[in-house]
Specification:
There is one protein chain. By secondary structure, the protein is of the alpha+beta class. It has 3 domains: about 100 residues, no CATH class; about 90 residues, DNA polymerase, domain 1, CATH 1.10.150; about 150 residues, Intergrase catalytic core (hpI Integrase, Chain A, Orthogonal Bundle), CATH 1.10.443.10. It has 16 helices and 10 strands. The strands form 3 sheets. The protein has a 5-stranded antiparallel sheet, covered by helices on one side. A 3-stranded antiparallel sheet has the order 6-7-10, with no helix packed on it. Strands 8-9 form a two-stranded antiparallel sheet. α3 packs antiparallel against α4 and α5 runs antiparallel to α6. It starts with a strand and ends in a 6-residue tail after the last helix. The N terminus is likely disordered.
Length: about 425
């Protein structure tokens, strides 16, 4: 596979000088120390090995091996010297024949890199991610980012993109859309330029030489326990003109005790509830893109781990399962393990969309005249209560299904300050003597 890289040949095993650059053949297992020697004449292409130039290793040089071949390709559109690089298996003599062939192709212009605009690259990236089976919601977001970038900067050649250019773009996105959007656009642009590097459209992504925008500090406000109890009781019994909705009451209870998000709640099926082991399997989640619901697997290993259940949550899920069973019996439908725990269909044959929970939560909050609380805050409620009860951060990480404990610390470090002060007081108390009478 060809791969262009910046001019430079430190650490190569065999080298010779052509014009003002090096064409190179190096054995993968060669030593890193290199002695550079220029060719002796204008027509000579014979290399002088760095460690096989004593005339005693002819048999070794005749053996087949893995080689890396590099040939000068002149200056690119960014005014930097380029080289074409290939991997090759064979003898050293055949490796140098490949060098001669590549030199001829370079001189004939066959290996000249074509110019590529940002618009062409982004179209290729979106299509690449779509064919690779990325989640529809992710592909839809990529397409949305690509539309805006193409409209504003589509004619820019990617070989001329610099870290300064990207910084200016991110500043514009921050002003027009906010800091959170700037992070998303930067990540998409970084992904696209890294793929351009992989596809040999550029030598090196400029994002490798810069620091991207910082992730905005996430909001992690936790509702008070009495507020959560009020929401659950109101959903179960009804409030004002809003009728009782026991299904939604169970969803609120499960969200508060398991820290599942709306997509994960929507993806739960009857077979995911383990009453004997008191655990809940989280195998998938539901997303909706342009009105169409999609089932997708959970993203990380931490997300796929079973969630521990307490007895009261298991009882609430048992009540929900009993209601599903009654509905299926009235319809004459058999209850199967693939029925969804929350569904708008009477037979629970289809899952709800993730916004089903947030929509009902917003209506219930308005009926109770509550402000500043969201359905997603129930996830923070569980973490806040666990940390406040003295549960160690590693256990909280597992219960929240964060990929790393650092993510848990970053989001809930403010909750650990009180524990830190309590620990400091406890340590200081051991140094104080008993009170004098």
């Amino acid at each position: 596979m060809d791969r262009a890289s910046d001019y430079g040949s430190e650490g190569w095993g065999f080298e010779f000088l052509r014009a003002h650059q090096f064409n190179t053949v190096v054995r993968f297992d060669s030593v890193s120390t290199t002695q550079r020697r220029p060719k002796k004449g204008p027509g000579s292409v014979k290399p002088i090995p760095a460690y096989l130039d004593d005339g005693e290793h002819e048999e070794e040089r005749a053996k087949c091996a893995d080689w890396r071949v590099r040939v000068s390709a002149g200056k690119g559109v960014d005014d930097r010297y380029k080289v074409v690089e290939r991997a090759f298996h064979g003898t050293e003599e055949k490796a140098w024949r490949l060098v001669a062939k590549l030199v001829t192709e370079v001189d004939a212009g066959k290996l000249k890199r074509e110019h590529c605009t940002l618009a062409a690259l982004l179209d290729k990236v979106v299509e690449h991610k779509r064919t690779r089976g990325r989640a529809p919601r992710t592909v839809d977001d990529y397409a949305r980012y690509a539309v805006w970038l193409t409209e504003k900067y589509g004619s820019v050649e990617i070989a001329k993109i610099t870290p300064k250019w990207i910084d200016d773009l991110i500043d514009r996105v921050t002003r027009e859309m906010g800091a959170s959007s700037a992070v998303h656009y930067y990540r998409f642009l970084r992904l696209s330029l890294k793929l351009a590097e992989t596809w040999d459209l550029i030598d090196r992504s400029p994002t490798d030489r810069m620091e991207g925008p910082s992730e905005p500090e996430p909001e992690s406000e936790s509702p008070a326990p009495e507020t959560v109890r009020l929401l659950i009781d109101s959903a179960e019994k009804g409030v004002g003109k809003r009728p009782a909705n026991p299904d939604f009451a169970v969803a609120l209870y499960v969200a508060a005790t398991t820290q599942l998000g709306p997509g994960e709640l929507a993806g739960l099926q009857v077979c995911d509830v383990g009453f004997e082991r008191l655990q809940l399997s989280v195998r998938q989640s539901i997303s909706r893109v342009r009105g169409v619901k999609h089932v997708k697997a959970t993203k990380t290993k931490a997300r796929k781990a079973p969630v521990a259940l307490d007895v009261s949550t298991a009882e609430a899920l048992r009540e929900q399962l009993d209601r599903i069973t009654d509905r299926c019996e009235k319809l004459g439908v058999k209850l199967t393990p693939d029925r969804w725990l929350w569904s708008n269909a009477l037979d629970h044959s289809e899952p709800v969309a993730p916004d089903w929970f947030a929509h009902r939560f917003d209506k219930l909050r308005e009926a109770l005249n509550l402000e500043g609380v969201r359905f997603y805050d129930l996830r923070h409620y569980g973490a806040t209560q666990a940390i406040g009860a003295g549960v160690d951060i590693k256990t909280v990480q597992g219960h929240m299904r964060h990929a790393t404990s650092r993510l848990t610390l970053d989001r809930y470090s403010h909750l650990l300050e009180a524990q830190g002060r309590a620990a400091a007081q406890a340590i200081a108390a051991t140094l104080r003597g008993p009170a004098e009478p």
